[in-house]
Amino acid sequence: MRPIHTESWFRVPARIRSVNPDILLSCMVLIWGFHFIVIKDAFTNLDPMTFNTLRFLAGLPLIIGIGIRQGGIFAISRRDVGWLALTTLIGSLLYQILFVLGLDRTTATNSALLVATMPVWTALFSLAMGLTSLRRQLLGGIGMALGGVALVVLGRGGANLALSHDDLIGSGLVLSAAMINGVSAVLSKPVVDRVGGMRAAVWKYGLMTGALLVITAPNLAALSPDEFPVKSLPHLLYSGVLSGVGGFVATNYGLTRLGPTRMASYFNFNPIVAAFAGILVLGEPVNLGLVIGGPLTLWGVLTVRRNTFLRPSGQARSPGRA
């Protein structure tokens, strides 16, 4: 596999540099796992799209501050800005819309497991583009993950399985979001390689926030103080600042100190924490499809992560060739 270079462009604050990266990422796993519960609870006071916009706004000042502190945030060509805008609109923005609408209709446990399949869709699209080496272990991991997803999604419908079933629709929306984000990761890789992951992330965050503001402008304009209860503020701060910006800093710190493979391994625990949190805190039901499909999905995703190898440059085939 081609080595992935860590970025020196991102300088972590001195106070954070003294923290053990494994401890920091372990804390973030708990924060990310409970994030699904926090968002789900926030929907009782605010509609999903309005909450999504407000949580991005909550983290925007900090993200801009990080970008300014690093310097060179505007050292990016118009072409790259345009490509970042395109991949943000067709990938990240659509992911956010489908994710919150899906989470509103299904359980936090289901959502966490389905979101965890993003590496599977990235690998599938990379295979189709000839960017990834074909390996039996990779295909086996993809098969396990997809089989587990089918058990999780269909297990929620039970005997009343129907397209109108809220749980099934919600799971389908979240699964579609994971697919779109996986494909978007492949499409945005060239521009991220050119401008750097951190610089690209700051720009994409700002573009995402602007797009969400345009979409939800009528809802925000009609939002009265009574419809924005004070008890929603902790949800917004947790989601936008602690999970969003905190995760932004922690993952890049982990990337620098631990390397990409070890840092990425922490993401495998997010759905496990979310599943236990959903069951214990929200009382979400447990069924046979979840018990069997959940572990199968996670094992498949882990297998995909371990067996995804980029083709050496010059060997990638064009999509139209066999």
Task: Explain the overall architecture.
The protein is mainly alpha-helical. It has one domain (19-306). 72% of the residues lie in helices and 0% in strands. The chain contains 13 helices and no strands. The protein has helices at residues 14-17, 21-42, 48-70, 78-103, 108-115, 118-128, 136-157, 166-195, 197-221, 233-258, 260-264, 270-281, 288-306. Mean pLDDT is 77; it is low at 1-10, 157-164 and 313-322.
List the helices and strands and how they pair.
Blueprint: H1 14-17, H2 21-42, H3 48-70, H4 78-103, H5 108-115, H6 118-128, H7 136-157, H8 166-195, H9 197-221, H10 233-258, H11 260-264, H12 270-281, H13 288-306
Order of helices and strands: HHHHHHHHHHHHH
- The chain-level mean pLDDT equals 77
Oligomer: single chain
SS content category: mainly alpha
Gross morphology is globular
Total strand count, please?
Answer: 0
Q: Whole-number radius of gyration?
A: 20 Å
- Helicity level, as a percent range? over 70%
Count structural domains: 1
- Report the total helices: 13
Taking the alpha carbons of the first and last residues, their distance comes to 22 Å
Beta-strand share of residues: under 5%
What can be said about the biggest beta sheet? none
Uncertain residue segments: 1-10, 157-164, 313-322
